[in-house]
Amino acid sequence: MMDRPKDGPLALLLLLLGHMISALEVPLDPKLLEELPQPPTITHQSPKDYIVDPRENIVIHCEAKGKPHPSFSWTRNGMHFDIDKDPKVLMRPGSGTLVMDISGGERSEAYEGIYQCSAHNELGTAVSNSIVIRQSRSPLWSKERISPIIAQKGQSLILHCRPPAGLPPPIIFWMDNNFQRLPQSRRVSQALNGDLYFSNVQPEDSRSDYICYARFPHTQTIQQKQPISVRVLDMDSLNDTLADYLNDTDLFSDKPAEERAPVFMVPSESVSSKMVLRGEVLEMECVADGLPTPAVSWVKRNSEIPSGRASFLNFNKTLRIMDVSEADAGEYRCFAKNRHGSVHHSIRVTVNAAPYWISAPRNLVLAPKEMGIITCRAAGHPKPSIRWLVNGLPIEDAPKDPSRRVEEDTLIFSEVQTGSSAVYQCNASNLYGYLLSNAFVNILAEPPRVLTLPNIIYQVIRNKPALLECVVFGSPVPTITWFKDSRSSMLEGNAYVFHENGALEIHMSQPSNSGKYTCVARNNLGISENHVYLEVKEPTRILRPPEYQVVQRNRDVVFECKAKHDPSLVPTMTWLKDDRELPDDERFRVDSDRLTITDVTESDAGTYTCIMNTTLDQDSASAQLTVVEQPGVPTDLELTDPGARSVQLTWTPGDEHNSPIKKFLIQYEDALHQSGVWHNLTEVPGTKTTAHLKLSPYVHYSFRVLALNDVGFSHPSMPSRQFRTSPAAPDENPTEVKGHGTEHNNLVITWKPLTPLQANGPGLQYKVMWRQLDMEKDWTSVSVANVSKFVVSGTPTFVPYEVMVQALNDYGPGPKPSAVIGYSGEDFPSAAPGNVRILVLNSTLAEVHWSPVSLESVRGRLQGYKVHYSRERSLHRHNSHQGKQRTEIFSPNKTSGMLPDLLPYSVYSLRVTAFNGRGEGPSSVPQRFEMPEGVPGTPSFFKVSAIDLDSLTLEWGPPHERNGRLSGYTFKYQTVNSKNDLGLLEELDLPSNQSSFTLHNLSHSTRYKFYISARTQRGSGPTLTEEAVTILDRAMVSPQVDIATQGWFIGLMSAIALLILILLIICFIKRNKGGKYPVKEKEDAHGDPEIQPMKEDDLTFGEYSDEDHKPLKGSRTPSSGTVKRDGSDDSLVDSGDTQFNEDGSFIGQYSGRSDRDATHDSSEPPSPVNAMNSIV
């Protein structure tokens, strides 16, 4: 337990000091350590118990630091050790480590003893532990004569090892002459002391080379005991061998060994005790004698054996508990049990403890006039005693220091003075060991200094904590304050945590926390400050993680992993497979945000993880890849439980390949009837591996199995052995039996033949039977083979028959067949429908009526009536074309029907027939009928033939389908404005013999839309439309023909185009050579007309306008064929003033006319023909 001061005021003082004083740690800054004085500190030393190898030099370590660097001295067995007197002992430079050179034959025993190192400088002395130096020893085995041992079968036996005592103790093991470890078991095992225990011996234990070996770890030498010979005898052979061994052997017993209850061989008493030290290893063992071999178990009374630190070794005979604590004390019981009884042994365990630290003393750095404490608290059992030393001397023998006071395990310092620095040692010891610790008191007076590097930039992720360091040193301990961006206000509040070491922590960093931070350190000797910077970055996040993938083998798979990150950070995408690097395989291709695996194999299955790393954070996501393929091939097909028509099939399924098997398909091959062809027999669920197969007679079966999963079918298994079934009579008759006639005096009987599998045996035939229904009592039959029909001749026309077909083979007939009804052949109907009448309903539709034929005249099954009709001629003299014959079919119960889509004003002829399955009968008497007039078709053409300022002439042709006598034409027209809005509709009636019409008094430069339709007495037909525009200028209208369609004009235009092309090529060549040409000279003289500004006074233009390219909305090319040229032609003429209306429309021509002429003609639109004439 912690040792508490008993004095109340002292406890209060210690509590007060604990709140007032924080120990000043000297940071391990190299520059600072070089500047500050510091008492010595032991940094490395040899262990307390140091066993050395006698063949090597002895090295005793002692390293220390301090400012100034310390000097070293040693004591041996409590006396000063003068290393200068022994030339074989050296001290390493700058160190206190001793090296004892024994290479010259010196014995290491001469240097055994207790050593202690001291490190001194002007501020104090630090001392090491007391180091006990002992030489490792591996003595030889003492000479002894070991007699052979004879044991009776079933007796217990102990082979003693008794190795020589060594330092440290040797490791024991048993081997034979061939250096092979002897086998151990629950019956034969090695105890902790090295002896070999036999719970009962057996004949196989007989051997002459039981050898105990001892290995000494420090010297790595192995010592060997003399071999022990053991012979195990049965009671029957004991009398025969007794005389041979009586004089020079040990004989255990002459009584037979019987089975017995367990008895402990180790420990021998019923209760034992064991002491173990805290932190060490506790080992307890129980070895029992018994036959049969007892089983050993362990329990702890009133508690549980610690599972995490306990283990059962040596076939449960040894209980080992690691890192023992006080809680492991108590009573442990081991039990040995066989079928004859049980026995137990109690081991009382006590746990003591060498001293261990509760609070080891710590170095103390104080400023003059400050207060401080050093505590030294240790625990152990029994309770350790505390002893203080200063600079290696007992504190009571050291010079008195008024600022120092000892209170048991605490040193109290008050009003310390410069020059009172020292190293204090605390020694805590009890019966089982000691602890020694150095702690210095260093009196320093130092102004603050900030040791953190200036202008460090800290980067942190948003919402993560930020820790800004401010490592400072000063004596007295400086106070630290923090500022942000400026020194105007000190940081404070719940958003910040100020650590004792000066660091500033921000719990949840936000972008607003970014900026410059200043830490200021102050004490009574000065002030120091440092600036650092904080940058808050956006976190890295995976937006689209990879998804679970199921892919077939040899396919490709793609994992996508899209992430976002702070744009100022450099990201790195890494992919892992099963938390390891991707395989070094070219099939794995990593792109910026995806992983592609081509030609996937089974080994590629696993967990794939994408990791997006930046210098500050990372995010990761994982997905599983499952590789599937068709199931493995089923194997081990076996046929069992054979029956006359059944057998049991079992198999072993193949690998599922990560896709569960849904079903098994069983196929068979019939080697007798269809060798090499496999047929599906049955299916079973994927959870089954057996099937009871129903078979057919007279088949040589071989079976195979295919497995199906979501990917597809496996390859077929190897075929099973052949299984043959015996022949039998057919189980079924042919199906689809029918009777029908192909001639008027026959009956054709057909059926679907049996398959070889359905035949059930050899000699398959068909017994065909028939009789006339209700007329014949007896069946007529015939047997046929290898056919599927039979023709019965000489039958009456179309009478019903009963028909049957029965299968039979060499083993008997099949089941009795069922009769079906069939009819003998039909003949053509003998009568025509009568009383045919036609009712005309309108100009395109007529209805025909007839009387049905008698049943006797049908001579078969009446299937309906056919009406054949055709157009003979038109009633119009201009159209007398004859039409194709058409046929309408009506059901047998109909006596009338409609004739659609007839042509008006035509003459039709019509006849009616009845028909059956054989064909049509005679026709009725032909009937003629006329169709009335109908509305006419559209006029054959409609065009504008002449255009003037205020008139238009239109022409049209009569319709091709007049459908009656034309009574006239309906002519309509209306204006169309630029927005396609229609004006008032005017209508005129024109006679039927008129084919043109001129409209006068029209508005000039106006678009019109015209409509025309033909009329008969039944009404007007469909309308034909046309559009045209009246002209603006009569001069633009050619009085003659359209020259654009004349051959000479087309040739002239082609020649001009070719000439222009040649001139352009020559100009291009000259320009490339840098030469001038006339056009170039003119451009140089007058400037580019393309870039001349427009003058307001004369409306001349310099810029190109696309207004001339815009066509009149909704305009179309007149039917006369004239061609309008757009304003692009003006680019071909270099001279002449071109003028525009106020709206920019073109009003002039490239003809060189005067302004007066241009003004006079401004009211007329440009004529394309005249424009072309002016160019020519």
Please tell me about this protein's structure.
By secondary structure, the chain is mainly beta. The chain has nine domains: 30-135, Immunoglobulins (Immunoglobulin-like, Sandwich); 144-236, Immunoglobulin-like; 258-353, Immunoglobulin-like; 360-440, Immunoglobulins (Immunoglobulin-like, Sandwich), CATH 2.60.40; 446-537, Immunoglobulins (Immunoglobulin-like, Sandwich); 541-628, Immunoglobulin-like, CATH 2.60.40; 635-725, Immunoglobulins (Immunoglobulin-like, Sandwich); 735-822, Immunoglobulin-like; and more. Strands 2, 5, 6, 9, 10 and 11 form a six-stranded mixed sheet that branches. Strands 12, 14, 17, 18, 19 and 20 form a six-stranded mixed sheet that branches. A hairpin with a 2-residue loop joins strand 33 and strand 34 (393-394). The protein starts with 7 loop residues before the first helix and ends with a helix. Belongs to the immunoglobulin superfamily. L1/neurofascin/NgCAM family. Pfam families: Bravo_FIGEY, fn3, I-set, Ig_3.
